[in-house]
């Protein structure tokens, strides 16, 4: 399945704990007012996400100081993007079982990804099972808070995906929120 991506950040400290590789996928139908990445709403924006990009990301994830992969957008849980991400995330988990995969989605876990919605497709359950943390819910400009760690607005939840799947209810991530961003002098 074809997917474009807007950008790859090779040493991101904003979108999850530690230093991470972040893949910003293209395509999003939420159209949240105040979106931080409006150009990536277009499914045709950016470059095709090919085997070559997958391989580059896998290489970039290898060093011990890289804590994991973050998926942002655009919207990783648009069905076309799920279908493209699924085989890639299988490769990531197989190669690096200890690296955390974080994903940002405007869809909510319990209402849309588990329920009937335009996001839910044949790839959704397996894709969720490959994630460690899901930041869910649309960006809401009225609830924007620059003091929040790892999310843009107060309605968004940081969810422990394995615990949520086991409990069949959303379980909040209680990981280390105290990791300070690395400042380079």
Could you describe the 3D structure shown?
It is built from five helices and seven strands. By secondary structure, it is of the alpha/beta class. It has a seven-stranded mixed beta sheet. Helix 2 (79-95) links the parallel strand 4 and strand 5 (100-105). The longest helix has 17 residues, at 79-95. It is globular, with a radius of gyration of 15 Å.
Summarize this structure briefly.
The protein has 185 residues and is an alpha/beta fold.
Largest sheet: 7 strands, mixed
- Termini Cα gap: 43 Å
Helix content: 10-25%
- Class by SSE composition: alpha/beta
Strand order of the largest sheet: 3-1-2-4-5-6-7
Task: Give the low-confidence spans.
Answer: none
- Overall average pLDDT: 92
Tell me the Rg in angstroms. Answer: 15 Å
> How would you describe the shape?
globular
Q: What is the chain-wise order of helices and strands? A: EEEHEHEHHEEH
Number of strands: 7
Tell me what portion of residues adopts beta-strand conformation: 15-25%
| Helical stretch tally | 5
């Amino acid at each position: 399945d074809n997917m474009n991506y807007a950008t790859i950040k090779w040493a991101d400290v904003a979108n999850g704990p530690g230093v991470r590789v972040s893949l910003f996928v293209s395509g999003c139908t939420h159209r949240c007012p105040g979106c931080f990445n409006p150009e990536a709403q277009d499914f045709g924006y950016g470059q095709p996400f090919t085997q070559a990009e997958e391989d580059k990301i896998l290489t970039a994830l290898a060093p011990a100081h890289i804590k994991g992969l973050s998926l942002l957008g655009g919207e990783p849980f648009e069905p076309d993007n799920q279908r493209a991400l699924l085989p890639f995330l299988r490769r990531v988990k197989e190669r690096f079982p200890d690296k955390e995969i974080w994903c940002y989605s405007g869809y909510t876990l319990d209402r849309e990804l588990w329920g009937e919605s335009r996001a839910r497709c044949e790839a959704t359950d397996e894709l969720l099972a490959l994630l460690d943390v899901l930041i869910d819910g649309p960006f809401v400009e009225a609830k924007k808070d620059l003091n929040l760690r790892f999310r843009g607005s107060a309605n968004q939840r940081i969810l422990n995906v394995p615990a949520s799947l086991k409990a069949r209810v959303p379980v909040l991530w209680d990981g280390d929120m105290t990791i300070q961003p690395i400042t380079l002098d």
